[in-house]
Amino acid sequence: MNSSQKEILLSEHPKYISEIEKNGVDNLNPESIDGILDILLTSFVNYGLEDNDEPNNYGLEIEHLIDLVNDAE
Asked: What is the pTM of this model?
């Protein structure tokens, strides 16, 4: 996960950033995975869709992050 992805993902949730940096995405605890997915899905719905419900560039980045976190489960 690169630095811009971390910023997009969790700019207001530094505890998750420190956990990712310490343990890696593949070693997140289940509670963190749920919390991160909640943040990502909310961001995707609020900011990641065009008027026609297709993902915009931000939405595509969020989709990628969702895939990364889902792979950690």
From this structure: 0.77
